[in-house]
Amino acid sequence: MNDSENAHEGDGAVVALAAERDAGVTVQTLPKRAGYTAAMSQPVFGRLLTAMVTPFASDGAVDLAQARRLAAHLVDEQRNDALVINGTTGESPTTTDAEKAELLAAVVAEVGDRAQIVAGVGTNNTRHTSELARQAEQAGANGLLVVTPYYSRPPQDALAAHFVAVADATALPVMLYDIPHRSGVPIETATLIELAAHPRIVAVKDAKGQVVSSAGVIAATGLAYYAGDDGFTLPLLSVGGVGVVGTSTHFTGARTKVMIERFLAGDLAGAIADNAALLPVYTGVFATQGCMLVKAGLAARGFGQAVLRQPLLAATHAQSSAFVALLDAAGL
Q1: Max CA distance (Å), the chain
Q2: Which residues constitute the domain of residue 236?
Q3: Does residue 189 sit within a domain?
Q4: CATH number, domain at 72?
Q5: Is the pTM here over 0.85, yes or no?
Q6: 205 annotated active-site
Q7: Which region, left, alpha or beta, applies to residue 24 given φ > 0 means left and ψ of -120 to 50 means alpha?
Q8: Does some domain include residue 297?
Q9: 150 flagged as catalytic
């Protein structure tokens, strides 16, 4: 079965749930989770999270001082409730386990007293992912982001077993990362509902782009759903999502937080206007690989150099100029 067929199968499960409700059939749901109790409550990781880039010095080494400066800016100026460290936007495939631990410890030391720190630990090796989870716990992380194992495309039962093994490895709450266009396989609706029964699996970073199926999982489980694509933040909020794990939020964070707060306060017109104003940046940051443009934008704003590790390269002058023009036009 290909990815599009998997996607339709997930939507079909939601349609079936809706049909059963309409017919007056009782549909079993799981208790609401500690991560999300009601639309107005504060989810376990907050509302606004940024998947922080990893600053590198000109020689390619991790620049811990610049990482601490950037983390403080994201929390104190861009109003992030939490930061994701060592995620894909942080170029985690190119950093060593030791570098991951050092970076995480530096960010925890800088902002851990005023923001939560979520460690990206996902790999396509269950044992290695579990080791990284334990390392993150020791470094002071508040939670884990665990991506679907990529390339190997495990079937759904193996996928569920992978996530349970990682969740059992530490006492930290877990956010699942559902991004089939990168990992090659979705976390299907039935699997998400099954995994929600685990006491430490409390949230989902949703980059699947299927709001209807996400709404069904939210209704059935109460998992805290975060948009994994910046432009889906407001649509996902409308069906019970709680916030965003953003990329453009290196720049749009404070205004995205206002948009979320307006939505929660019932100011729909204001939230829609905010979304419209920020949408060019939400989408423009993905005109090429997101961290390339984030680093270009940060360099233009005085945050270090736009140094990346291969296989990624620094954005071209044309790409950088186009993105910075979007930031300027949005007043960021």
Answers
A1: 64
A2: 42-267
A3: yes
A4: 3.20.20.70
A5: yes
A6: yes
A7: left
A8: no
A9: no
